[in-house]
Amino acid sequence: MTTTNALREIEELADMGITLSDGTRLSARVWRPVDSGTDPVPAILEYLPYRKRDGTCARDALTHPWMAKRGYACIRVDIRGNGDSQGVMEDEYTQQELDDAVEVIRWLAAQPWCSGTVGMMGISWGGFNSLQVAAMQPEPLKAIITLCSTVDRYAEDIHFKGGCLLNENLGWGATMWCFSSRAPDPALVGEGWREMWLERLRAQPFLPEIWLQHQTRDAYWQHGSICEDFSAVKTPTLAISGWGDSYMNTVPQLVDNLETVVKGINGPWIHKYPHFAIPGPRIGFLQEALRWWDRWLKGIENGVEDEPDYRAYVMDGIAPETKSLYRPGRWIAEQTGSTRHLPVETLHLTDTGLDPKGSLTAQVSTPLHAGMDCGEYGSFFAGPELPGDQRLDDALSVCFDSAPLPQRMDIVGAPRIRLRLSSDKPQAQIAVRLNHVLPDGTSARITYGVLNLTHRDSHAAPEALEPGRVYDIAFDLDHIGYRVPAGHRLRVAVSSSYWPMIWPSPERTCLTLHEAAIDLPQRPAGEADEWVFPPEDGDAPWDIRTLREASNIRRTEIDKANGEVRLIIVDDSGLVEDATHGAISGTIARETWVIHPDDPLSARGSCHWTSETGRGELRLRTETTCEMWSDAEYFHLKSGISAFENDTLLYQNDKVSRIRRNMA
């Protein structure tokens, strides 16, 4: 095996078959040096359901050929039941999925063109299962790079944040309802493509129905949550995420808890690889990854294990931008650990504001549409998805402002809110936002946290509140790196609802705050970068012809007739044709979230995805829809899927279900 990174000529295989022990054929797209048969190379596996033929092509084109030219075989595998792979996917992160991955890793290691060492890399789903597979300790797997992933499937994914039901549970379920029901490419799988598609459609699970059957942190969520046993992950781990995403907490959790070599990077980015993410500054992720693979897959002594444990971008506080292309700031580096060791300043929520000390008696009973400027749970489409100006949400909340800061403050880490409170109802929620108030009154969200108060002691065994009883409550807000300039103010905004981020409790509640304080982790404010990354790099972009331009819509409406408030979202990915093999692909995602400010049982979410694929005279389309609403006792779900071949209906299935609420 050559241990230099001299550029090598590569070849691409559009459909390398990997047949599992049960006979299921997985489809892999491969980039590898043409001479790897005589000079074997390590393998890097990316393993996920998002369709290598037409789903992840843009990022694959930038990433995998670049790495292959430097002496690696990059293998992009569609998991069972997705894209061009056979079989059926029953749920996310099943044991079947993970066992398949282990089989793939062992198969790769045994190929004559592979040196016998394997790395695993991925963002989101691929980052999740990289961690989960690493915990299974397959011998050939020597290192992983996990991006935008989680260690806790219950509390740190798209399901239940702080025990509150995230509306992303429905929204992302609708995404998978669309992605996994799409047809394989007939040009790759051959004449059996239609029957393969029908098998997939007939077996397609509506995942929110599964997820809602587990409203507490039970064995279902413990499976795949590596926080159950951090010591199981023994492979060196590079973890990366961004402040514009929903998985920023994972990076410090891994840095502080894994017992192996682990390095973490949190940048300003949304849910994208950092060599093409927004907002900038981007970094040379591929160069960082190459050094990681060189060290652990090729045994090159390059010192990556001696670099700082945690590198994070501290964003300069500016007016909020719902779509941001660049955030000014600076890079900091912590040699040992992430942020636990940083000093903390405590400010109290008082009757006069946010002060070093003082008494408090405040009631919080916010209109149920408080939160309309929360932005997406995690920005994915790169549209106007980041939190907007918080002044409207602040006006609906109970707010505590500091005096103008005498000097700038760098908040680095996870602020912790501590409360003594009582509720007038047995079920209640609380949302706490830490905001930056500019001199002109503009309010920017720094970070936030939510808690289902019945989960105050346990996500596994929630307990109803005793109305009127005073409870001591504490929880963390999300990790952040943020600079508040001198002369600006901090604001803590407290609400008893946070729509459309979380589903409301069955009854509108009134919380009484008796005492409250927030602990702010701080780092000495500096001027210069403490770490300099190489500039972004990548291979040639995906060669496509655009048939329909991409577009994004975010619109809020108030119905003056009945008082309902609606958030309407349309994300059109556009329609493109692959210039190499002629396949066309595109999606349109539509979401509507409706609530009446006074009625929690008026909450309703609906999603509709249109997906198009095909080539030449063949056009394949799926229309997937879902809705959710609730009464005091049940969640109600409605889902539908229709599949068309050249506008002729090939398959249709509609279903309704209800699931009893369990303090959610």
What does this structure look like?
This protein has 664 residues and is mainly β. The strands form five sheets. Strands 1, 2, 3, 4, 5, 6, 9, 10, 11, 12, 17 and 22 form a twelve-stranded mixed sheet that branches. Strands 25, 26, 27, 28, 29, 30, 31 and 32 form an eight-stranded antiparallel sheet that branches. Strands 13, 14, 15, 18, 21 and 24 form a six-stranded antiparallel sheet that branches. A hairpin with a 2-residue loop joins β13 and β14. The radius of gyration is 25 Å and the shape is globular. 51% of the residues are buried.
Task: Spell out the blueprint of helices and strands.
Elements: E1 10-19, E2 25-33, E3 41-48, H1 57-68, E4 73-78, H2 95-109, E5 114-123, H3 125-134, E6 141-147, E7 160-161, E8 164-165, H4 168-179, H5 186-189, H6 193-203, H7 207-211, H8 219-222, E9 237-242, H9 250-257, E10 262-267, H10 285-297, E11 310-316, E12 329-334, E13 344-350, E14 353-355, E15 362-364, H11 391-395, E16 398-401, E17 409-413, E18 416-423, E19 429-437, E20 443-452, E21 471-476, E22 480-484, E23 489-495, E24 511-521, E25 544-548, E26 551-558, E27 565-578, E28 584-596, E29 599-615, E30 618-630, E31 634-645, E32 648-660
Parallel strand pairs: 3-4, 3-5, 5-6, 6-9, 9-10, 10-11, 11-22
Antiparallel strand pairs: 1-2, 2-4, 7-8, 11-12, 13-14, 13-24, 15-24, 16-23, 17-22, 18-21, 18-24, 19-20, 19-23, 25-27, 26-27, 27-28, 28-29, 29-30, 30-31, 31-32
Count of individual beta strands = 32
Q: What structural class do you assign from the helix and strand content?
A: mainly beta
Structural shape: globular
Can you tell me the residue ranges where pLDDT is under 50 for at least 5 consecutive residues?
none
Rounded to an integer, what's the Rg over CA atoms? 25 Å
Number of helices: 11
Q: Roughly how much helix do the residues carry, as a percent range?
A: 10-25%
Strand content: 35-45%
Overall residue-averaged pLDDT value: 96
| CA-CA gap between termini | 55 Å
How is the main sheet built? 12 strands, mixed
Protein name: CocE/NonD family hydrolase
Organism: Ruegeria aquimaris
Keywords: Hydrolase
Domain Xaa-Pro dipeptidyl-peptidase C-terminal: 290-542
